[in-house]
Amino acid sequence: MASSDGFNPEPEFTHGRAARTAILYCNLGTPDEPTAPAVRRYLAQFLGDRRVVEIPRIVWLPLLYGVILPLRAGKSAAKYASIWEPEGSPLRIWTEKQAKLLQGWLAVRGHDAPVRFAMRYGQPSIASQLDALKAEGATRILILQAYPQYAGSTTASVIDAVSQWTQTTRNVPELRFVNRYHDDRGYLQALAQRVERHWQANGTGHLLMSFHGVPERTLHLGDPYHCECLKTARMLAEWLRLEPSQYTVTFQSRFGKAKWLEPYTEPTLQALAAKGVDRVDVICPGFTSDCLETLEEIAMEGRDAFLAAGGKTFHYVSCLNDDPAWIAALGGIAEKHMAGWPTKVPADTAALARSREAAMLRGAAR
């Protein structure tokens, strides 16, 4: 809690402690449980973000709290319940596992860089995890996001949350942000191998790449998300040696009545079935962890739509999750962006001890 001067208390400082680099791995978020009250709290935070819904507050907030949340919370809770695991939300499970595996991968390569995960909406919050990293002695923090493609509604919103934290922090660590890796070789290779393994085990079908949608107006206002999604899709198709007729790119999760990026996923699935495409294999390259949008919207609702329209076989190719190739790609991205920062265990511990001794001789308590 901030003190009367507006800043949170600083953790106790100890002289002679080596500078330490840390990573905060951020994902979108999830309700604490699949119940209407928990989903309402989550959606209020999510849909109340001006980055997510770019409607004037005076118009949007009464609509959000008076109509949308009362109507949507219960329906969304039922959807979450359909994919909930005994350990909790799939998105939280995978995000936490990715953070642990990333720290392990870095440790094997000689890096002493603690990794914590945080959620933009829900728990653990970005602010609480930044506080924890500071308390552990982190003086340099890399903000690594789970979003391969940059979007104002996701990537920039995380930057907003970090910036809000700095406004109540007296001693702000050095910060770096990974804004995108939509064309990173390791990420694309992990995606391609995921598809190839699926095809080796199940045969091949028409590949549909479904990305999360955003309002079309954001494209015209300068958001690069649409272009980065198409580049990811093109490069993945090239890696898989696909002809244009063998794959389709779509956008899902439309919300509201405004025009969003097209083509939309579910109508495209129905159109493919109507054209005689018997089998589709759907992958969601913009999601690095399976979640509501992949497990319920695609693997359940998308399947039903395709089969009801006359399709014969529907396969969902799971997200990268804890795939070793993906963890290695994530590690490579982190290494590149931490370049020049101290991440190795300091060899000259004697110099640190001398520094501490000198400070204490001058009256330092610790």
UniProtKB/TrEMBL annotation:
Its EC number is 4.98.1.1. GO terms for biological process: heme biosynthetic process. InterPro entries: Ferrochelatase, Ferrochelatase_AS, Ferrochelatase_C, Ferrochelatase_N. One of its GO terms (cellular component) is cytoplasm. It catalyses: heme b + 2 H(+) = protoporphyrin IX + Fe(2+); Fe-coproporphyrin III + 2 H(+) = coproporphyrin III + Fe(2+). It is found in: Cytoplasm. PROSITE patterns: FERROCHELATASE. Its main location: cytoplasm. GO terms for molecular function: ferrochelatase activity; metal ion binding. Fe(2+) binds at H212, E293. Pathway: Porphyrin-containing compound metabolism; protoheme biosynthesis; protoheme from protoporphyrin-IX: step 1/1. The keyword Membrane does not apply. NCBIfam families: hemH. Catalyzes the ferrous insertion into protoporphyrin IX. Belongs to the ferrochelatase family. This is Ferrochelatase.
